[in-house]
TrEMBL record:
Catalytic residues as annotated in Swiss-Prot or TrEMBL: D136 (proton acceptor)
CDD domains: UDG-F1-like
Function comment: Excises uracil residues from the DNA which can arise as a result of misincorporation of dUMP residues by DNA polymerase or due to deamination of cytosine.
GO biological process: base-excision repair, AP site formation via deaminated base removal
Pfam families in the cross-refs: UDG (PF03167)
Compartments reported by the entry: Mitochondrion; Nucleus
GO molecular function: uracil DNA N-glycosylase activity
Reaction catalysis annotation: Hydrolyzes single-stranded DNA or mismatched double-stranded DNA and polynucleotides, releasing free uracil
CC terms in the record's Gene Ontology section: mitochondrion; nucleus
Keywords, alphabetical: DNA damage, DNA repair, Hydrolase, Mitochondrion, Nucleus
Name under which the protein is recorded: Uracil-DNA glycosylase
Length: 307
């Protein structure tokens, strides 16, 4: 069934439907295709498409602060929620969430809301052995899923991750470079792939930087460094932003190992990332500190060798 009607842009954002909308002057024409109770919405402004859907942070109708209220409670692993809960009532975090709501009214935001905190579920607080500090999520369709540097199939392995794989291969000769960019198996072993900024506007890198995420993820890092278990961790600080984060947080390098180098981006990888030996050094440290079997099995990624 199809129908046409004129609605305001404000009405379009508050509707619970999933529809196709094309702007004409100050009004829009709506073509509605209904399948059961679910409908699809696509907004085209001046030939620019903005995909939206019902269901809040995935880019749809629930764009109020209320829609975000339970995101942390519902999606953060309980081990992380327990130590990070004080942050959620602080002014900076409330302002951050209001900003994200505003962004979702106009743009696609990555990753999907259910994946913003996926790092916490894959790597519970007490399981962290290595922290890899990234910058912000990938900003194209089908890339970001909540782990720094990681992408899910069938997305091609990004250039920075290819360089990470090259260095793992150098450090661990038995590692077979995989065709997949999914780092989930390493996250489950205790590698925390943490971006400093946890969301991004589609097709606009660093668009959510400086809005509050960096303050929050610094607290995430502090939570790791001050765990009740007292266990030290390895921190990979690749690139100046990651190194500044470490300096800001203040890491006790008598207890923890901080490994610094250039970023794995093709723009800088040959200026100190490739050849840094970080993956071997990290495992040697973990083995020395905590015994055999505590190191990371990097080869778990290489079950399907690249062609």
């Amino acid at each position: 069934m199809k129908r046409s009607l004129a609605v305001s842009e404000e009405e379009m954002h508050t509707t619970g439907l999933r529809e196709t909308v094309r702007l004409v002057s100050t009004k829009v024409t709506v073509a509605t295709a209904t399948t059961g109770k679910r409908r699809k919405v696509q907004v085209v402004r001046n030939s620019r498409t903005v995909a939206t859907s019902s269901g809040g942070l995935d880019g749809g109708s629930k764009t109020s602060l209320e829609a975000l209220e339970n995101l942390e409670k519902d999606t953060l692993h309980e081990s992380w929620y327990k130590v990070l809960e004080p942050e959620f009532s602080k002014p900076y975090f409330r302002t951050l969430k209001e900003f994200i709501v505003s962004e979702h009214k106009q743009y696609n935001i990555y990753p999907a809301h259910k994946n913003i905190y996926s790092w916490s579920r894959l790597t519970p607080l007490d399981s962290v052995k290595i922290v890899v500090i990234g910058q912000d999520p990938y900003h194209d369709v089908g890339q970001a899923h909540g782990l720094a540097f990681s992408v899910l199939p069938p997305t091609k392995v990004p250039p920075s991750l290819r360089n990470i794989y090259k260095q793992i291969k150098t450090d661990v000769p038995s590692f077979s470079i995989p065709t997949s960019g999914d780092l989930t198996p390493l996250a489950k072993q205790g590698v925390l792939w943490l971006n400093a900024c946890l969301t991004v506007r589609a097709h606009k890198a660093n668009s959510h930087s400086g809005k509050g995420w960096e303050t929050f993820t610094s607290e995430v890092l502090r939570a790791v460094l001050s765990r009740e278990s007292g266990r030290g961790v390895v921190v990979f600080a690749w690139g100046i932003p990651a190194q500044k984060t470490c300096d800001k947080v203040g890491i006790d390098e008598q207890k923890h190992l901080v490994l610094r180098s250039a970023h794995p981006s093709p723009l800088s990888a040959h200026r100190g990332f490739l050849g840094n030996g970080h993956f071997k050094t990290a495992n040697d440290w973990l083995r020395k500190q905590y015994g055999e079997g505590e190191e990371i099995d990097w080869t778990v990624l290489g079950e399907s060798p690249a062609l």
